[in-house]
Amino acid sequence: MRIVIAEDNALLREGLVLLLTSSGHEVVADAAAGPEILPALLEHRPDVAVLDVRLPPTFRDEGLRAALAARAELPDLPILVLSQYVEETYAAELLAQGAQGIGYLLKDRVGRVEQFLEALDRVAAGGTALDPEVVTQLLTRKSSAGPLQSLTAREREVLEHMAQGKANATIAAELTVSERAVSKHIGSIFAKLGLEPDDGAVHRRVLAVLAYLEGRGGH
After folding, report:
1. What is the chain's mean pLDDT, rounded?
2. Which of 8, 184, 204, 217 could form a disulfide with 198 if both were Cys (CB 3.0 to 4.6 A apart)?
3. Is the Cβ–Cβ distance between 30 and 5 less than 8 Å?
């Protein structure tokens, strides 16, 4: 894959470049500040962009703003956003543009090389990769009202795993239940939330659920 990286921490940036190139990918450009990102993305049109949320000059949301601007110019550009902390507002704003080809991971996750590379591959393929902490906070914030109240504890567990972009077989293995049981729980979740299950890729179901949780869905 051809990748553009935006990270102001030189050590982490060089570490990402080394990790990605040693994994067979090509880093076509790297940026250390917000204003550098969009020009690099438009010039190189990479297969995926890996962007830090907070970058110079203000260290607020330059990476996020660049991600949103890039998606406006290149709607199909897969973007994996990295953040030091769970910032719900930023996650929600990014997801509001559509969860297809979107990832939001805490930087701690980068140290878990296999998980990071798996998330990067999933996003580049048009899927979704959300950090478990992000999912938990989004669900917790929305659980006090509406149809989420009707979900059982097990259904909430399945929903959290779905929102992380996991396939049914993976969910079944992690919860130590059958894949058939997972499918049944998913059917119940969609019924209770008033959402129609999608027979396509997992990320389409994630998009529907997260759009609903953020109050932005059309369902």
Report:
1. 82
2. 204
3. yes
Find, among 199, 173, 135, 174, the residue nearest to 186 by Cα. Answer: 199
The DSSP bridge partners found for residue 130 are 104
The residue to which tokens 């406006």 are assigned: 72
Residue 50 has pLDDT above 90, yes or no: yes
d(CA 23, CA 203): 24
**Are 74 and 47 contacting, i.e. CB atoms less than 8 angstroms apart?**
no
pTM of the model: 0.74
Q: Which two tokens stand for residue 47?
A: 């297969």
pLDDT of residue 65: 87
SS3 assignment, position 169: helix
- What is the rounded CA–CA span in Å between residue 1 and residue 162? 26
Please confirm whether the linkage preceding 57 is cis (ω < 30° from 0).
yes
Q: Determine the Cα–Cα distance for residues 208 and 218; give it in Å rounded to an integer.
A: 9
Q: Distance (Å, rounded) from C-alpha 25 to C-alpha 175?
A: 33
**Angle formed by the axes of helices 88-95 and 132-142, to 10°?**
90
State the pLDDT at residue 201: 46
